[in-house]
Amino acid sequence: MERKHWYEVGLDHVWLPYTQMKTAGPPLAVARTHGCRIVLADGRELIDGIASWWTSCHGYNHPHIRQAVERQLAEMPHVMLGGLVHEQPLTLARRLAALLPGDLDRVFFSESGSVAVEIAMKMAQQYWINRGERRKTKFIAFKGGYHGDTIGAMSVSDSDAGMHDTFRQLLPEHVIAELPRDTASADALKLVLARHAESIAALVVEPLVQGAGGMRFHDAATLTRLRAIADRCGALLIFDEIFTGFGRTGSMFACEGAGVVPDILTLSKALTGGTLPLAATVARRPVFDTFWSDDPAKALMHGPTYMGNALACAAANASLDLFEREPRLAQAKAISEQMTRELAACRALTGVKDVRVQGAIGVVEMHRIGDLRALRARFVEEGVFIRPFGAIIYLTPALTIEPQDLSRLTGAIVKVVGDLK
Ligand SMILES: *Cc1c(COP(=O)(O)O)cnc(C)c1O
After folding, report:
1. Which of 84, 261, 301, 358 is the most buried (most CB within 10 A)?
2. Is 300 exposed, middle or buried (0-12, 13-18, 19+ CB in 10 A)?
3. Ligand 1 centre from 304 Cα, in Å?
4. Measuring CA to CA, which residue among 306, 312, 316, 278 is closest to residue 112?
5. Is 117 a pocket residue for ligand 1 (Cβ < 6 Å)?
6. pLDDT for 3 beyond 90
7. Domain 6-58+327-419 annotated CATH 3.90.1150.10
8. What is the C-alpha separation between 313 and 81, in angstroms, rounded?
9. CATH topology of domain 64-325
10. Which residue puts its alpha carbon closest to atom 5 of ligand 1?
């Protein structure tokens, strides 16, 4: 009798993300990774264009991160952060506070991006409650936005952009508005706010680039308008930098590039260089100050079990070392220039709606993609891992990718899009 492989026996029991398990066809089995390469169980090697949902910014298996995690594993993998503190999360909090602009200097850790967004929403809500303002319970978020898959995070995501329509009945209702890209849409947003002024706790936005909602870009002026509008109506401003943080848009953080400081900011994805799950919700000092009180009821009522996990924080500290020692932002700039040059050829191809690049994010937007599954398979045949969604084909490679590997990625896109009928 033929002995079954881990792959076959396990696939009968695992439930995969965003996947119709019946029709999806067999996923690719990965044996290992190195640099910008994914090595499949059958021996094929793919150049990675996605960096595992934008996490592995230094490439896979970076020795510096590995050593830091191994050292931490031998010393202490984890202790709870309730009543106990330890070095890695404290060091990481201090370093993030120093890196982030303005007085964004209080860091609350969790284990996933969605949870960091939930915490940001709870913080904003309780900020107002602690100030004696109980009516501010609503959020304004934006078309094309994506903030995660948990209930609160879904409720501030655009259901057209996300995959959340099924759950509409479950979600608290917030306001999804147009981004104030120009003065006309800014006026429209002011009207929305005027209608809801008393009830708005905060505005939530992915600064500069809306990622999972379609890789849509907006400019710094849009964020300046949001800051002004939030201030005028007495609402907090939350930047979700889970995708844009750590060099992806060309500066260390999008807020820095845009010159706008939010009141609360979320981080995850590339925080640990793609090695361990970790997220952070960072508050400005005036936000934290409303929780600082003799009244125990004014404390922030949240505490994930694995909060401040020592292994994950050690990985994140090592990742920050790499940002300090190695020219990541210069690499992001070089990637940006190369993608701009090499993806330009797509503009002339049939079916292409737009080609755009911001930082180390390259996007070819199609009018429509008929068969996503076939398209994904075509890329694998070309020896690359690129995962189009909706009508979007995009690249978010590791910031360490070599120019010739990046050319293989852009070349595959030009070729495969050119072959589409
Ligand atoms: C990925 C993402 C999230 C959700 O993070 P998870 O770790 O998947 O929960 C939230 N916001 C943005 C902007 C993201 O890109």
Report:
1. 358
2. middle
3. 17
4. 278
5. yes
6. no
7. yes
8. 12
9. Aspartate Aminotransferase; domain 2 (3.40.640)
10. 113
